[in-house]
Amino acid sequence: IPDVIPDHDVAFIAVNESNKNRPILDKIEGLLETWPCQYINEPQNILNCARHTASRLLQNIPGLYVPETRRIRRGEVGECRFPAIIRPVDTHGGKNLKRANNWDELGRFFEEEGAGAEEFYISEFVDYRSDDGCYRKMRIVLIDRKPYICHFAISPDWIVHYAKAHMEASAERRAEEALFMENFEVDFAVRHQDALSAIADRLNLDYVVIDCGESRNGELLFFEADVAGWVHAKDPIGTFPYKLRIMQKAFDAFRAMLVNRSGIASSDFLRP
């Protein structure tokens, strides 16, 4: 953080929750006590995005299923219901993530993928495969508590990471994503309106990205939340012609939030 803060109209706090970033969030929290203008995202509420904290905060919401997630230290697994998902703390994108079906596989994780780490997140594994055997994961950004679709990934692998789902290789999957994104506001967002609103209220953030799916019984299935999740329209337009127009809705909503928080006239707020 620079000693002299440059002139600005509104500050956007987008430092994600992690062990490394907690001191930074604490420092920003102190600076905001005398901040000269409005800001987006309360730093202490960003801590709500920690996997075990979000799991606790989002329990007992009708229509929402959140796998119970615990933060443990090496050698302190305690009771465990298999299959279980385990990863080192502060890892993302499926890195060093493992599904353990029994105690032997869990032990191998600590010796292999988890070697060198001391703290881990462990949670139950939820099989949310569709009838075709594929897993479907949605990335949604909540801007001023309203949901906007960012992508819809389809993969035969239970670790659904959009960049590794190879959506570009399947016209059929892209067609399904296009239909899902096109109908998001009148279908998915309506069916899960109450659950999405409850997530926004309990995380209590102006801007947050969530990854989720749907359970086999139709509940919204929550995976994780992050204020720094990648929200973009960088996919090749020739392959993904449907994305830019839909993503523009999220970009416009974010701009509107900036204008609203800044307190200046919308006509004076230059569009990049």
How does this model look, in words?
The protein has 272 residues and is of the alpha+beta class. 29% of the residues lie in helices and 22% in strands. It has eight helices and eleven strands. It has helices at 22-31, 43-46, 51-57, 103-111, 171-183, 188-191, 193-203, 243-262, and strands at residues 10-12, 38-40, 64-65, 69-73, 84-88, 98-100, 119-124, 135-143, 146-155, 207-214, 220-226. The strands form three sheets. A five-stranded mixed beta sheet has the order 3-11-10-8-9. The mean pLDDT is 94.
The percent range for helix content is 25-40%
Strand order of the largest sheet: 3-11-10-8-9
Poorly predicted ranges (pLDDT <50, ≥5 residues)? none
Secondary-structure element order, as H and E? EHEHHEEEEHEEEHHHEEH
Biggest sheet record: 5 strands, mixed
The whole-angstrom Rg is 20 Å
Strand content: 15-25%
Distance between the termini: 25 Å
Could you outline the blueprint of secondary structure elements for this entry?
Layout: E1 10-12, H1 22-31, E2 38-40, H2 43-46, H3 51-57, E3 64-65, E4 69-73, E5 84-88, E6 98-100, H4 103-111, E7 119-124, E8 135-143, E9 146-155, H5 171-183, H6 188-191, H7 193-203, E10 207-214, E11 220-226, H8 243-262
Parallel strand pairs: 1-2, 3-11
Antiparallel strand pairs: 4-7, 5-6, 5-7, 8-9, 8-10, 10-11
